[in-house]
Amino acid sequence: MLTRLEVDGFKNLLNFEVDLGPFTCIAGVNGTGKSNVFDAIQFLSLLTDRSLIEAAQEVRGVHGERFGDPRDLFWNGHSGAAHTMRFAAEMIVPGEVEDDFGRPAAPSITFLRYELELGYVPPRGIEKIGRLSLLAENLRHIKLGDAPSKLRFKHSSAHFRNAVLHGRRAGVAFISTTKDAGGEPIISIHQDGGSRGQPKPAAASRAPATVVSTVTSSDDPTVLAARREMQSWRRLALEPSALRAADRYVDPRQMDPTGRHLASTLFRIAYEDGDPERVYARVAGRLADLSGVDVRELQVEQDDVRELFTVQLVESGGLALPARSLSGGTLRFLALCVLLEDPTVEGLLCMEEPENGIHPANVNAMVQLATDLAVDAHDAPGPANPFRQIIVNTHSPAVVQLVDPPDLLFAEADMRRAPDGTMRRALQLRPLAGSWRDEGPRSRAVTKADILPYLTTPPGAQTTLDII
């Protein structure tokens, strides 16, 4: 669970910081840069599996496309000035993970702070595109005694906090950065034995990837747990074409971020539960919350001749419809219903504008479903309460009005002083006054008067409900 994110120098995130709970809704007009928060989270996740340059190429470019030029990730882009970006992520990591060889590993402590600093090296010789350089990387524990002040969202200390936060750490950080005699960064991994463990140092200047991405075994369980946590941060981009596709029997039975393998995933969940009909009935009942969707039952058809799984919906009149006949909005809702039933899906899920393709009458059902996907912080996480975290962004007044006020953050592009002294438009997320993120004047909280466009009928509206 990502509890705090700090970013400086990435796109329009300058001195940016935000505290996060189980569910967060970021609202803002187009062009403020609210999607850049998702980009930063995605970038940190990609860096756990890919090289620095490969991760940079996967992240959305300045025009919404992938350009492959790492300069697109920096606030000052293609200028000739120095390029540096810094990240910090405070997180609750799993209490037990598996290494790449299937061996179990338990971290020394489950509350951690990860810090990363990257620079840019211009192209040389025949190179046409520069590269990212690793300037600093640190991983250290957060004292469990600081948890009440760190986790300020409403939760049960007895059932939730005590269940996810445990362990202790004595000695140095798990990953630290020092400088050699020439001023070059040296990054060291420290064993979980604390000061008794021998550090494993490596020069960072030519490192092709982060240190966290290189930890694959149970020899460094806490670093591995941090890696596994960041690997679980995903950005959902559900595509109707992927959701409509049938699955072969040999396909993976885990839905990917586009929604591909929906049918095989639902089949796996149903039979792992032990009562397939009960699972199908729960998904069908949730789908029936959508106005205009006539559903009596839902199931996964097994075509043993062609060896295909297909999601099929049966209407009240008996008409059977395959998934390819459903609308894009209905399919996206169905995909989230399946995720809700899957106890193996944990970690952070980012969703852009979940209301897209949804009829206004069904926005309430979509918001409730997105909220229900997040872990209930008043109970201990487990199979019936998966440790999932949800962040959505939106510009819809209907969504803002339906989300619980403490879960709202409002995106604004304010003028900030950049490292070179110039004034730049940078993203800031502002909570509602009186909510748990409101720290007084420092938080620059908004009031209902500040967000009237989300709460009132827009000027010029010609079709409204007359109230007598």
Automatic annotation (TrEMBL):
GO molecular function: ATP binding; ATP hydrolysis activity
Entries under InterPro entries matching the protein: ATPase_AAA_core, P-loop_NTPase, Rad50/SbcC_AAA
Domain ATPase AAA-type core as annotated: residue spans: 294-400
Alphabetically ordered keywords of this record: DNA damage, SOS response
Biological processes per GO annotation: DNA synthesis involved in DNA repair; double-strand break repair; SOS response
Keyword RNA-binding: no
One Pfam family, short name: AAA_21
Residue span, Rad50/SbcC-type AAA domain: 4-43
Record's protein name: Putative ATPase
